[in-house]
Amino acid sequence: MSGDQQVAVVTGGSRGMGAAIVRDLAARGFRVVVASRKLGACEAVAAEIRREFGVAAIGVACHVGRWEDCDALIDRTLAEFGRIDVLVNNAGMSPLYPSLGEVTEELFDKVIGVNLKGPFRLAVRAGEEMARTYGGTIVNVSSTSAIEPHREEIPYAAAKAAVNTLTQGLARAFGPTVRVNSIMPGMFRTDIAKAWTEETMTLVERIALGRVAEAPEIVGAVRYLTSPDSSYTTGAVIKVDGGLVWAPA
Question: How many structural domains does the chain have?
């Protein structure tokens, strides 16, 4: 699928890999909706997109852990553009905790909300609209933690494992006109890298390619899944980790 005035929604789109995905979609002609919790940051990216690529772009504040915010994001997109062709569920969070016993119910619920509840609701709302109208594609951003969880990210890993299951289930639910796929990035360098622990950094030694990825190297997988080249790909979970994890998805 090329842009051609189609509409793409990207959550967590105001920085890091999300912003890189937004730019790639805009470069291909998509009109884009940049969504994250901070409206100002979203609007700033949208303004850059309009200036640089000459496509329509808006910023929308959305906390994906809140059901009503997810609905408002889809409703605003349809009100503004009248259609949704691509949804990229990129927003995520993995806060550090001192020990497993000190994980609070509030923290657990927040991690599950942002990483699983939000992608579910957004994919269902967008998928139903796509199936009713022009078809489309949904890309969920999971993590290699889904198949190789580490002790400092177990709630996050559980949510991402569920995202992989969600992807396969929704692919069946919304086929044949809507494709749903997931990518599982490994370690890639964005501002989140500042929070990496010493234990996290030891994982670099296990990466077959010997280095951490840059955000554009992950974006290439999203480009494939939102292009005509992937027209027979749905329900797939694509690992993009430089050879860090070898277990199957």
Answer: 1
Q: What's the helix, strand, coil split of the chain in %, to 5?
A: 50, 15, 30
Active site residue 232: no
- In this structure, are residues 29 and 57 in contact, taking their beta carbons and an 8 Å threshold? no
pLDDT digits (tens, 9 = 90+) for 41-88: 999 999 999 999 999 999 999 999 999 999 999 999 999 999 999 999
| CATH number of the domain within which 17 lies | 3.40.50.720
How would you write 173-191 as a 3-class SS string? HHCCCEEEEEEEECCEECH
Of the pLDDT bands very low, low, confident and very high (cuts 50, 70, 90), residue 206 is confident
Is residue 31 in some structural domain? Answer: yes
Of the candidates 195, 108, 194, 228, the residue with the CA atom closest to the CA atom of residue 157: 108
Range of the domain at 152: 7-240
Q: Pick the catalytic residue: 134, 156, 224, 232?
A: 156
Give the per-residue pLDDT at 1: 47
SS3 138: strand
Structural contact between residues 17 and 216, judged by C-beta atoms closer than 8 angstroms: no
Start-end of H helices in 54-183: 67-81, 105-112, 118-132, 154-174
Q: Is 238 within 8 Å of 141 (Cβ atoms)?
A: no
Of the candidates 225, 141, 211, 233, the residue with the CA atom closest to the CA atom of residue 183? 141
Residue 193 pLDDT level (bands cut at 50, 70, 90): low
Question: Cβ(240)–Cβ(186) under 8 Å?
Answer: yes
